[in-house]
């Protein structure tokens, strides 16, 4: 024991007090990048930005695409898409900077919103519906064209990849009252790259109504869902059909939502009413382009 203590004191004696404090800073660039890259993967987007501002060395490290790709897929809880057009840091910012589609259009009609989550559309065919009945949905998937009206709407030419879903509360389009409490809810889903496209930013891409109909009777709830037709029979999708596990109880008027790997659904219980007016809206990337945004709106009659 005595020999070991003398040896440790001998080593410490060769290091001056000043050099002991400066050593960590003088050897900073010798740190392993792989270690810091691994640490960065545990940080939120905000923390990554703060870390990048501390030094040029950290800025170079944090701005690596692999870090933001990991953060984006981790926070959205989706698998990696086949390809993306924009940088991952830009995709992360557009997904988590608090923006939503009504901030770019119709701000005067917007009341409130909530983020539901993200899901993947692997095929170019999507099913939109107001019904959460599994039997009806599984039968509807065989439609070969977009339905102009009815419970279901089948969309072709969907842009595949990551989609982000929000639930929007907006004033009814025929109401100009500033004190309107909001009589329309909208399931709003968009491709993750939508806000970064010039066609969207300059207003050239607009929503078009592809289906509409009325439910002219008292309805207990306003529901809407978007499914990737390719994954309708997946075990993960069945969670949406288990309605009792996620919708609110009859006296609960708060909106509820469910997102799975390849589908999203919303449900809001309603008080006594005279029915609903339902619309399916789509936005395409140009006149004959891919569908890049979908809305299912439901307005009280």
Automatic annotation (TrEMBL):
<dbReference type="InterPro" id="IPR001810">
    <property type="entry name" value="F-box_dom"/>
</dbReference>
<dbReference type="GO" id="GO:0005634">
    <property type="term" value="C:nucleus"/>
</dbReference>
<dbReference type="Pfam" id="PF12937">
    <property type="entry name" value="F-box-like"/>
</dbReference>
<dbReference type="GO" id="GO:0061458">
    <property type="term" value="P:reproductive system development"/>
</dbReference>
<protein>
    <submittedName>
        <fullName>Probable F-box protein At3g61730</fullName>
    </submittedName>
</protein>
<feature type="domain" description="F-box">
    <location>
        <begin position="34"/>
        <end position="74"/>
    </location>
</feature>
<dbReference type="InterPro" id="IPR036047">
    <property type="entry name" value="F-box-like_dom_sf"/>
</dbReference>
């Amino acid at each position: 024991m005595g020999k070991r203590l003398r040896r440790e004191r001998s080593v410490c004696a060769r290091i001056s007090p000043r050099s002991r404090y400066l050593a960590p800073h003088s050897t900073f660039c010798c740190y392993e990048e792989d270690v810091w890259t691994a640490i960065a993967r545990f940080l939120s987007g905000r923390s990554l930005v703060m870390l990048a501002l501390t030094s040029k060395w950290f800025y170079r490290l944090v701005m690596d695409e692999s870090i933001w790709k990991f953060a984006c897929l981790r926070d959205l809880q989706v698998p990696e898409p086949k390809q993306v057009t924009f940088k991952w840091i830009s995709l992360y910012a557009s997904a988590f900077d608090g923006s939503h589609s009504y901030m770019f259009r119709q701000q005067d009609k917007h009341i409130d919103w909530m983020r539901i989550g993200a899901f993947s559309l692997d095929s170019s065919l999507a099913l939109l519906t107001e019904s959460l009945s599994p039997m009806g949905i599984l039968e509807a998937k065989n439609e070969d064209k977009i339905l102009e009206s009815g419970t279901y709407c089948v969309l072709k030419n969907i842009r595949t990849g990551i989609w982000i879903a929000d639930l929007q509360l907006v004033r009814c389009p025929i109401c100009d009252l500033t004190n309107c409490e909001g009589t329309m809810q909208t399931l709003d889903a968009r491709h993750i790259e939508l806000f970064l496209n010039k066609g969207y930013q300059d207003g050239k891409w607009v929503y078009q109504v592809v289906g509409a109909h009325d439910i002219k009777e008292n309805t207990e709830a306003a529901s809407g869902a978007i499914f990737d037709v390719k994954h309708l029979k997946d075990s993960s999708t069945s969670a949406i059909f288990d309605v009792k596990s996620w919708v609110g109880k009859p006296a609960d008027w708060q909106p509820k939502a469910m997102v799975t790997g390849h589908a999203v659904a919303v449900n809001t219980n309603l008080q006594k009413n005279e029915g609903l007016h339902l619309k399916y809206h789509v936005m395409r990337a140009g006149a004959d382009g891919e569908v890049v945004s979908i809305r299912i709106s439901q307005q009280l009659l």
